[in-house]
């Protein structure tokens, strides 16, 4: 396997300046592992680098003698969420992800608001979203889930599949070719492990570690970078029960671009689109051009993002306040 097949590119090579590099494959409380293309290595954190500052998918330079990490290379993309119990503190989920596989199933898990949340997350970090609807083989479900998911946003496509079916899974091959990285997100029980096992050809070995969490629930806690049979990479992010948005304002604007475009037509510049006279959004709802439920989901998502982002006072906001262009914007254009 080559470094290029692991996703290493000229942007990382330039930063590494010839030092030994590894891609982080596993982050556990007591062990960090990486892949170098030829080896799997055990890595140590230097003083000053905290476990929560690195994540699966990261590229690092390290000392091959000691295994000590020297530096974490600037990420192309990074997925994060509000930490459990404290939404304003960011928790890293995965780095250098090209495609976000947003997994839901054709049953009670299917939830438009949650899908919009994940779409906003994908857009805000510049990863390509793909909605995967599992359990499409369930005969008890007459609802047109695929149609509803495809209708959510022109930014995202959706596929319906049976995660146990090899031919269905083979349709995901274009997103997991050598050098490419996809990450699975979605609620517990929707089929992420089934997709991971199917695409990596692994059985019980990569079944993840099930541990009792504090609430006595069983959740897969292993988060890892695994190679698929197509040569590319897949990151599972199990046990993500909640997804608190922070710092995804850009993504929300893109997912609801049609509504955002109407805002300048509101009579009041600080219109909340809830009761004001002359509101262009309410007018669009009345005229049947906008869906009231979708407008409500948009306002709720935006309020949540603003709250979490403001309390955290992110680096990006600071940059914005200082009149600088956030670095992330530039990267999206590649
Ligand atoms: N019939 C059918 N069953 C599926 C499908 N996908 C997953 N399942 C089943 O649904 C259950 C949950 O699937 P998992 O793959 O463990 O779900 P998960 O998303 O990894 O769940 P966590 O590890 O808790 O995050 C298992 O019993 C799977 O066999 C599908 O497409 N069709
Ligand atoms: Zn308005």
From TrEMBL:
Which residue intervals define the domain EngC GTPase in the entry? 95-241
Which Pfam families does this chain map to? RsgA_GTPase
Q: What is the predominant subcellular site recorded for this chain?
A: cytoplasm
| Gene3D superfamilies noted in UniProt | P-loop containing nucleotide triphosphate hydrolases, Probable gtpase engc, domain 3
Annotated InterPro entries = GTP-bd, P-loop_NTPase, Ribosome_biogen_GTPase_RsgA, RsgA_GTPase_dom
Record keyword GTP-binding present: yes
The EC designation for this entry is 3.6.1.-
- In the record, what terms sit under GO molecular function? GTP binding; GTPase activity; metal ion binding; rRNA binding
Q: Where does GTP bind?
A: 134-137, 186-194
Q: Which domain of life is it from?
A: Bacteria
GO cellular-component term (any): cytoplasm
Q: Which UniProt keywords apply?
A: Cytoplasm, GTP-binding, Hydrolase, Metal-binding, Nucleotide-binding, Ribosome biogenesis, RNA-binding, rRNA-binding, Zinc
Q: Where in the cell is it found?
A: Cytoplasm
Amino-acid positions noted as binding Zn(2+) in the UniProt annotation, renumbered to this chain: 266, 271, 273, 279
Extract one GO BP annotation from the record. ribosomal small subunit biogenesis
Cofactor dependency: Zn(2+)
Family in the record: Belongs to the TRAFAC class YlqF/YawG GTPase family. RsgA subfamily.
Subunit-level organization: Monomer. Associates with 30S ribosomal subunit, binds 16S rRNA.
Cited function: One of several proteins that assist in the late maturation steps of the functional core of the 30S ribosomal subunit. Helps release RbfA from mature subunits. May play a role in the assembly of ribosomal proteins into the subunit. Circularly permuted GTPase that catalyzes slow GTP hydrolysis, GTPase activity is stimulated by the 30S ribosomal subunit.
Protein name per UniProt: Small ribosomal subunit biogenesis GTPase RsgA
Q: Which source organism does the UniProt entry give?
A: Rubricella aquisinus
Lineage of source species:
Bacteria, Pseudomonadati, Pseudomonadota, Alphaproteobacteria, Rhodobacterales
